[in-house]
Amino acid sequence: MLAIQGLKCIYDTTGKGWSIELVLRADGEEAVRRFDVDGAEDAELLIEAFEDSSASTFDPETGEIVFGYEYLDLDEVDEDEEEDEDGEADDEDEDSDTPEENEKPKG
Predict the structure, then answer these.
(1) Contact between 15 and 1 (Cβ < 8 Å)
(2) How confident is the model over 59-86, as pLDDT tens digits?
(3) Is residue 27's pLDDT more than 70?
(4) Which of 18, 50, 60, 104 lies 20 to 30 Å (CA to CA) from residue 92?
């Protein structure tokens, strides 16, 4: 597997066709591979997949391009946010209690 360093979308005005170029890097060497795609939409989807991926590789033996994605554990994030929100809510309640609001009218 070779690491993909970048993708380039190409439209050949002579052949009237779309292609994607992969810029590959391995062992200090850089190489470029070009693949035909069906149209601009396919090229755009590949570039978006590359931009959104956390890792991307090309396997020259199979010709496969692989885009990998890392996912957050949303349960952990939610727990942290709930703790922050609870702490902020307590602070707001303390700030809103002023002596004037707690005193009973005299008289």
Answers:
(1) no
(2) 888 988 888 888 767 776 555 566 666 6
(3) yes
(4) 104
